[in-house]
Amino acid sequence: MSPSSHRPHARPATTRRRLRTFCAPLAALLLAACTAEPPQALGTLEYDRVTLTAPASERILAVLVREGERVRAGQPLLRVEPARTRAAEQAARADVERSRAQLDELREGPRAEAIARARAELAAARAQAREAQAYHARLQPLARQRLVAAADADRARAAAENAVARERAAEQALQELERGTRPEQIAQGEAAVRAAEARATAQAVTLAKLTVSAPRAGRVDSLPYEPGDEPPAGAPLAVLQVGDRPHARIYVPQPLRASVRVGTPVQVEVDGRRYAGRVRMIRNEPAFTPYYALIGEDVARLSYLAEVELTDPRADGLPAGLPVGVRFAAERARD
């Protein structure tokens, strides 16, 4: 048999091999298109932060920890100069004692000596009133007979009336002392004591805060000031990263916003490893550009700030600042 007799059968085999070579990449592309990657959002790892502020504008005496150091709850971090705040606290305590003494005085009422003096003043006022009235009575007949000047009679009458008024004032003063302190005055004294005690408590709290301590266990993130600095009141003295496990702070694209809600399970990819997590917070307002400034296809540029809690125990101790990618389930995203 000649070689030419095999050629008709060789062409179909070559064609099949060429078809297989061409169709294999096409099938791979179609398969990849059918199994698209689930949607994802990008962000960074973060820890919850606690900021400790300066309770007063005082000089920093010592910084007891370093940035990055692990601290336990209640551990001192900084010491601040307490002299001025301690003096203010002592003055507030003195005000409390003074207010309490004034309240005790109000509750005791007038002293017996004060009442006795008021009685003596009343007796003197009555004697003066009798004398003035008697003198005026003696002048009246003489004034009618025009034996004395009318002005002298008028002065005698005024002196008698003035003496009677002083007598009545002395009587009222004595009654006021005998009846004692009014209930309203005692209530005012009690309120003054409470106000003084509140001011003293506030100063004591401020004094205690001058030794800055960690409210929770965590890691020191930053210490903005050095010994010798005098930061203003309210300035951050220390920032702590708290919690054993970080969370992912991500930006959810607008096409995914409708399907992402609190509690949505996700996969968090960090440095090539995947960890289980769930959405714990997502903002209702978009970040960066206001939604009303975007129309048409530009709406897809909106993003929403969200936080993802890492529920995988393997995430314990991961450092903050690492970039992350959060993947959502494809079927959930299409709902």
From TrEMBL:
InterPro entries assigned: HH_YbhG-like, UPF0194_transport
Task: Show the Gene3D superfamilies listed in the entry.
Answer: 2.40.50.100, Helix hairpin bin
Coiled-coil zones: 89-135
* Entry's Gene Ontology cellular component terms: cell envelope
Domain YbhG-like alpha-helical hairpin, chain residue ranges per copy: 92-200
Q: Which domain of life is it from?
A: Bacteria
- Compartment list: Cell envelope
Sorted UniProt keywords: Coiled coil
Q: Does the keyword Amino-acid biosynthesis apply?
A: no
Predominant location? other
Coiled coil is among the record's keywords: yes
PANTHER family, sorted:
EFFLUX SYSTEM COMPONENT YKNX-RELATED, UPF0194 MEMBRANE PROTEIN YBHG
Protein's recorded name: Membrane protein
Record organism: Vulcaniibacterium thermophilum
Q: What is the lineage of its organism?
A: Bacteria, Pseudomonadati, Pseudomonadota, Gammaproteobacteria, Lysobacterales
